[in-house]
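Predict fold of Zinc-binding protein; 157 aa.
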Amino acid sequence: MTEQNLPRCACGCGAEPEGGTKRIIFACAGAAKAGQLSNEAAVQLTEEGYGKIACTASLAVGTPSIMKKVEAADEVVVIDGCPVGCARQIAEKAGITPDQEIVVTDLGIEKGGSLDLSEEDVETIVSAAWEGKGRSETEKGRRPSGGCGCGGGCGGE
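Predicted 3D structure, encoded as tokens:
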């Protein structure tokens, strides 16, 4: 792993995420704009150190290496483009209940057929993940908002 690929805390507290929450991110990566935005947001979240993107198709076929990564993760985050929830359904069929599911169209972004992705839409999705908007009410009560888990005393904000 190169220095550039090391996960970094993006909360601004300056601490490294070592020992923090290990998240694995599955995006639907569907053919419509919302699906492609979900994938782009997962890439950005990986770059920001929030978690690591993983192959949803690999999860669908039960690749042993992906199942090991899921077992090693503290949280599973799913980003779906629309309410069909393909990534969530794939996770559930693999016996995984996501800790957080973000649905792009629930954030006011249209599914659409255009593949023109805007930075603003990607940022909306990324912010929703950091803010924990895809958590159930039970999960929101157990974890701090954002929950970067950096250990820097920032409270994940």
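The two ends are 27 Å apart (CA to CA).
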